Amino acid sequence: MEHFVTMKDKTETEILQLVRRAHHISQKGVNPLQEQYFAANLFFEPSTRTKMSFVVAERKLGIEPLDFMTDVSSVTKGESIYDTAKTFESIGANFIVLRHQQENIANQLAESLSIPVINAGDGTGEHPTQSLLDLVTIYQEFKQFSGLKVVIAGDIKHSRVARSNAIALSTLGCEVYLTGKDEWHDESLPYHYVSMDEAIEIADVLMLLRIQHERHQDQFNLYQESYLEKYGLTVEREANMKKHAIILHPAPVNRGVEIDTKLVECERSRIFKQMKNGVVARMAVIETLLNQGGNFNEENFNKRQ
Ligand code: CP
Under which pathway is this protein filed (predicted)? Predict the structure, then answer.
């Protein structure tokens, strides 16, 4: 594995190795790397969880994060994303973590740079490390993926989380369903749409999405009363979920919109566990990219345990 920019090019084996490695780190921890490494965390879009969990993951691995703030960088003088990334490569960054509003930009940079690129969210494209941490959370619950029914619910069309997860979950043998407002369907995703009430009946995992209002052409009133009732997870719906079913949400959560605020920390909710798993998932990705030199090999993983 040379880069981590999409779930599309990952095999079932590659994904499972990352999931198991992240889970292993969550149980046993890991020693810091012996060599000196620098990480370039290039966040051109706002982030709390992804950015800070990358910083924690890097520091736990003994890697020095090179913090970058666009508003006090040479981006304000018109420097391009390509020249910014090349600058970090030139001054010794060992990998780049990129969040950017432009879809496919991480992939383009990966083709142009000699250091690994990790996609931390590219517009409405993909968010593969969010998907990985979701997979770790599902794995910790069910210990396998094959046959699990996962419903991804909400603003499918504008969600990079939906895209990465639908791809990865299918690769792992899950049954993926989608639900949401008709105008937010994404017909390019080859999955069956169900109503929210059908979703409640079938889901082993209900993956709620944030309404990506910043990516909408037309302003959507988040707090119109009918949204939660029609499309969100109400207290009544939660009571009808399968006994063992869990709730995921990548956060930030629009409380009272996608989910009743009473359910954000309910027994089924794994929302804060997902955030915790964000650190180990990102550690697994980083050490794989730095240690494996393009070859995915679990034996090498285990040498460092
Ligand atoms: N889930 C997620 O990507 O959150 P942030 O935007 O806070 O990084």
Answer: Pyrimidine metabolism; UMP biosynthesis via de novo pathway; (S)-dihydroorotate from bicarbonate: step 2/3
